[in-house]
Design a protein that fits this description.
Order of helices and strands: HHEHEHEEHEH
Organism: Desulfosporosinus fructosivorans
InterPro entries: GlpE_sulfurtransferase (IPR050229), Rhodanese-like_dom (IPR001763), Rhodanese-like_dom_sf (IPR036873)
CATH superfamily of the largest domain: Rhodanese-like domain
Largest sheet: 5 strands, parallel
CATH topology of the largest domain: Oxidized Rhodanese, domain 1
CATH architecture of the largest domain: 3-Layer(aba) Sandwich
Radius of gyration: 26 Å
Structural class: alpha/beta
Shape: rod-shaped
Pfam families: Rhodanese (PF00581)
Strand content: 5-15%
Number of domains: 2
Protein name: Rhodanese-like domain-containing protein
């Protein structure tokens, strides 16, 4: 009787063990990466491409055409232009929630999704600097503005976007930070670039 009881107990434990092992394997396999997951991530990371045959900006799978190197401006050059009060129009194309977490002083928020509806607020007579989180969306915005008749020599994209601005300018204590923004020293990080959230 005791041997039969031990045999049943052993069999029950074996069945439970196998069930747990089966469930565990199911979860392990379910947590792996699949090709569809990789494709989805790649599509999200690709910059949108402007389709000039449509009135609005549409997103397609391929990266946007490269912009000329003369259409970019470095963080240092932009900082110098702001310090020299060159009167450039700074257009931050991030979403309002991103803009609210930190932006460059005097930048106007004109989100990429609504850019074409705000063209009347973007001067064709001034030099324009397009700003986003990392420079990707700004390249698409550059194409939109040029296709809408803006002089490609007057429209620039901030290289590296707000991530670059925050990393280089805030830590460098440039001329546009410090006392000009209410700080006590040139080493004080710029308040308009202290907080950031994700995005492109």
């Amino acid at each position: 009787m005791r041997a039969e009881s031990m045999s049943m107990r052993s069999l029950s434990l074996t069945v439970i063990y196998l069930l747990l092992l089966g469930f565990g394997m199911t979860f392990l396999v379910g947590c792996g990466t699949s090709p569809s997951t990789v494709v989805t991530v790649d599509k999200v990371q690709d910059p949108p491409k402007v389709n000039s045959s449509q009135n609005a900006t549409s997103v397609q799978g391929d990266p946007a055409e490269a912009i000329p190197t003369t259409a970019t401006i470095s963080v240092g050059d932009l900082d110098a232009a702001i310090t020299a009060n060159k009167g450039w129009q700074l257009i931050d194309i991030r979403e309002a929630r991103e803009f609210a977490t930190g932006h460059i002083k005097m930048a106007l928020n004109r989100p990429m999704g609504d850019l074409e509806n705000n063209l009347a607020q973007i001067s064709k007579d001034k030099n324009i600097v397009l700003i986003d989180l990392n420079g990707t969306r700004a390249q698409t915005a550059w194409h939109v503005l040029v296709e809408k008749g803006y002089d490609q020599n007057k429209v620039k994209v901030l290289t590296g976007g707000m991530l670059q601005w925050r990393g280089i300018v805030s830590s460098a204590g440039s001329g546009s930070s410090g006392k000009a923004n209410g700080g006590d020293s040139a080493d004080t990080p710029k308040p308009e670039a202290q907080e950031m959230v994700g995005g492109c």
